[in-house]
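Notes to self after the Tuesday call (sharing in case useful).
The group wants a holo model before anyone commits to mutagenesis around the pocket. I volunteered. Ligand is 26M. Logging inputs and output together so the record is complete.
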Amino acid sequence: MFSLMDGFLKNDPISLQKDILDHVEYTVARSRFSFDDFEAYQALSHSVRDRLIERWHDTHAYFKRKDPKRLYFLSLEFLMGRSLSNSAINLGIRDQYADALNQLGFEFEVLAEQEGDAAQGNGGLARFSACHMDSLATMDFPAWGYGLRYQYGLFRQVILDGFQHEQPDYWLNFGNPWETERIPVSYAVKFYGTVEEKDFNGGKCKVWVPGETVEAVAYDNPIPGYGTRNTINLRLWSAKPSDLYDMESYDTGDYINAVINRQKAETISSVLYPDDRSYQGKELRLKQQYFFVSASVQDIIRRFKDSHNDFNQFPEKVALQLNDTHPSLAIPEVMRVLVDEELLSWKQAWDIVCKIFSCTTHTVVPEGLEKIPVDLLGSVLPRHLQIIFDINLSFVEELKKHFGLDFNRLSRMSIVEEGAVKSIRMANLSIVCCHTVNGVSRVHLDILKTKVFKDFYELWPQKFHYKTNGVTQRRWLVVSNPGLCGLISKWLGTDAWIRDMDLLMGLRDHAVDAELQQEWKMVRRINKIRLAEFIEAMTGMKVSPDAMFDVQIKRIHEYKRQLLNILGIIYRYDCIKNMKESDRRKVVPRVCIIGGKAAPGYKMAKKIIKLCHAVGETINNDSDIGDLLKLVFIPDYNVSVAELVIPGSDISQHISTAGHEASGTGSMKFLMNGCLLLATADGATIEIIEEIGEDNMFLFGAKVHEVPKLREKAQNHGMPLQFARALKMVRDGYFDYEDYFKSLCDSIEGGGDFYLLGNDFASYLEAQQAAADKAFVDQERWTKMSILSTAGSGRFSSDRTVGEYAHQTWGIEPCRCPF
Ligand code: 26M
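Result:
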């Protein structure tokens, strides 16, 4: 007897083959006797997608029946990367697909390479969203993700003559098999216009008469959990012209212009803003924020009203998580809908708002906090500005009661910033309205409490918490490093660690086992060979897998100190050049690998990229140096590049000036993959040290509490000699472009060395030479450190982070759909 609960699709190789061929013929519209790798990829992903859809329907039917409290995760950025391998693995049918494909003459891995990255985000914050979606699904939490469906993702980086150029990422060009357009799920989103007061029920009510209306259409992306049937939804909104739009132009007969104007609505979801604070206060960015927030809030309230009729139950059924302040307009939007449309009293609505919102902040510096000019907000969202003013009015009254007439404090804490440009402080709005504000590492919370949000901490200490970031081992080990993954499961005797990372601790018992060490080295070497091949394909450079692969991949930023790395490389180059032949033989050969994008408007970051190329050009072509030192810049760093580079790295650098990296998550991916860390005690690294011990990594540099004093000293003291020498080579044009690099050098020498490169240089070199070079020569010790790194990485799974959020912040429980 056939049962609906079985699902319709079978997963044996014959059924999978038939399924793929059907998609070749009917979805891709190619002959099943003749199709290429890309067409095979398309057919394969549609076949996987069918299976996702089944589980997704079952999951949502189950959630609807059980009606648990749901979490809604709102983020302007999701950096998902590729979906094929991840989905097939999470569904538990990757190997069956590989078999089926083999018989058709294709290789799963080759087809997986055909997929482009979904790069709907910038960096850490956006990967945070992606990892959290994977963990939420895997841990059976009833959750939804909401975001914006950009037509152009993060720009592509193209390097010409060593300079970064940006090109648009038109990622939808070849179609996106992972999404489903939901034409019926669409909402009108209003902008501009005026707010009118109308008589209502013997009182007054506000009516917003918009000047523009845009339609938000849902695109759903299934997110499968690992080892569970649960498959949750990431709903991204796309802007379409509204039917209500611009009727006047039609009436006046200007048909062509009316149609052209309609198309302008689509620009709202056209492009992702690169992470650059100078973009603050831009109208399009504000419209993007409100567009996705308004559609999401309407959708959430519609779903609630489907099965409830009393808004007092709203906080028992709904938790809204704001990823940084970017979606914080959701707060006045919920107030507006509840008061103006659902006709709740202000007090009722406010009580609800105070119970449902929580946020995570990813920022360390106060200058990084988002502000929106009052004039702009008042023009684009006139009703929301009123609501924010009203919230602020009550808040300032509360402040006066608490602190008395301390005007300095009041003006610092007010949601409205007075000044040349009167602005709304989105962080203040979030703190006032959220029940919980989370930092992303322990030291980050300290910085929030003592610096960035000190005033707020003194008022509401109970609101401030931290959940140290984590990353998902499904993508960062299972998908990207199958070799190591198999080895871990073999030695632990189980693959249960894929859902319970603490089990990795079991590897500690085998860290010095000669057999494991041998196998570990072998797997790592294969990954290095794969990376060397990739480097050759991308840059034309041949590098030897015998050398130490020393990697720094992340966004280019002054505080992340890629410049410290490059100056260290220059120093090493200079040393090797001046060495006697007998000493050269003792040098550990190194391949230094740097990758990362600079925000298009960030001049210093772009100069750092050029410097990296200029130094590489000199070193790589110096016959005195040969294979002893190479410097490679990997262009267009993204998620899938990271998946390839991380497993093949020996050492990775996380060398931000202490107190500047809120958490850092790249380090966690390297750690899981058994790559040793060369790092400062900043962000989450401080907690990594506690897990694996100082002996198993290369730690250097000033500590967080030492930085302020050292900064004063840096103004007055000279640089260490080796540092001055490396810098002088840049200044004097050893690598050419001396005029172009002048401001880079000045930022250190003339500018007070804000990021303390000079101060940390000596201990950086020591960590590189005395520790890393020495340890690498002793491969037994190195491999032990590598195994202990993986063994100690369990705490940095996003499963742990999400579990903490669920329990401590959101108040949600797992809701596991039966298989
Ligand atoms: C701002 C204005 C206009 C356009 C874009 C932005 C913007 C976009 C992204 C600003 C910041 C953005 O991301 C910040 C970020 O990624 N922060 C990082 O978050 C990680 C996850 O918590 C942390 O590990 C990093 O330490 C933190 O730098």
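Two things stood out.
Residues 67-82+117-466 form a domain with the Rossmann fold fold (CATH 3.40.50.2000).
The chain has a mean pLDDT of 95.
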